[in-house]
């Protein structure tokens, strides 16, 4: 294994070619497998949580509501149900789009 890697490195140095694996993405990751685009899921949650925290209601209502909202949005970002490179929020969005779209069925009348 080590010799094989060493031969690949030597071959790359001779040819001046660099092999980049296909599974490398160009997105900037804030945390492992979480890109900046994924963090956009937290914006609606923050728009709900901040006014709740500023309301003059009991702290025993504010904390559980804000915690539940933040946990739901974190699950949407971190959970990867089908493939590792697709977060749950994209999978759910595509599933909803597929369910709503107009379905066209082609059929042929039999003789």
Task: Give a verbal description of the structure.
- The protein is mainly alpha-helical and 111 residues long.
- It has a domain at 25-100.
- The protein has helices at residues 2-15, 42-54, 59-78, 88-100; strands spanning 29-31, 34-35.
- Keywords: Membrane, Transmembrane, Transmembrane helix.
Quick tags:
mainly alpha; transmembrane; membrane; transmembrane helix; 111 residues; Conjugal transfer protein; 5% strand
Please summarize what this structure is.
By secondary structure, the protein is mainly alpha-helical. It has a domain at 25-100. Helices cover 54% and strands 5% of the residues.
Sequence-ordered SSE layout with sheet pairings:
Elements: H1 2-15, E1 29-31, E2 34-35, H2 42-54, H3 59-78, H4 88-100
Antiparallel strand pairs: 1-2
Helix pairs in contact: 2-3
Element order: H for helix, E for strand: HEEHHH
Mean pLDDT: 79
Low-confidence stretches: none
What is the 3D form?
A: flat
Structural category? mainly alpha
Q: For the largest beta sheet, what order do the strands appear in spatially?
A: 1-2
Determine Rg (CA atoms, Å).
Answer: 24 Å
Largest sheet: 2 strands, antiparallel
Count of strand segments: 2
Our measurement of the CA-to-CA distance between the termini, rounded to an integer number of angstroms, reads 64 Å
Percent helix, as a range, is: 40-55%
| DSSP strand content | under 5%
Number of helices: 4
Organism: Ectobacillus funiculus
Keywords: Membrane, Transmembrane, Transmembrane helix
Transmembrane segments: 39-57, 63-79
Protein name: Conjugal transfer protein
